[in-house]
Known about the structure:
Blueprint: H1 3-45, E1 64-67, E2 75-80, H2 85-100, E3 106-111, H3 120-131, H4 136-145, H5 147-150, H6 158-167, H7 172-180, H8 182-197, E4 205-208, E5 211-213, H9 218-230
Parallel strand pairs: 2-3
Antiparallel strand pairs: 1-3, 2-4, 4-5
Amino acid sequence: xxxxxxxxxxxxxxxxxxxxxxxxxxxxxxxxxxxxxxxxxxxxxxxxxxxxxxxxxxxxxxxxxxxxxxxxxxxxxxxxxxxxxxxxxxxxxxxxxxxxxxxxxxxxxxxxxxxxxxxxxxxxxxxxxxxxxxxxxxxxxxxxxxxxxxxxxxxxxxxxxxxxxxxxxxxxxxxxxxxxxxxxxxxxxxxxxxxxxxxxxxxxxxxxxxxxxxxxxxxxxxxxxxxxxxx
Length: 231
């Protein structure tokens, strides 16, 4: 073999090695991306975390459910602050999702009052006190629908909330007692503390089957929920 032929053969070998390296790199990249996507799908679509145990859970046995899907396959949890304008903006979206996925998705609400919101804790206690008379959903809805009446004000909204309890036909004396009961505040605080342990930093924060999600639109919510339902 001539010197020129040897050089040509070496160049051909180099080209082949380079091609194999490129192919290997592409293959590894594809595998890596697939693994990441698969892991995300598994996390989103896994069954909701157990509702007992010492570790933080997105949903527990005593968490408030706006509606429950019989199969329990998909659960959407919202940590919220009733004085939060962002939560109020998401409220109609969640209400529409409840209609769209009635019987298919469990919707859970957990308290996460922000300290800088003057009446947020009071609002959570007002809702929790109503929940003790079976009116969680009604008071939850009233808080967001009437938020402009009491939100972003630096004066106690106790009488406003008492009026809501009266309008909803609650036993106002019993509601008032529960509203001021330290056990009610403890119930609210328990949600907030668990939210912090789960990495909740602001509101609203959503978890789909135990995995934190950050949808930016109703369509993104639906895409994530649909993917979970198909698994």
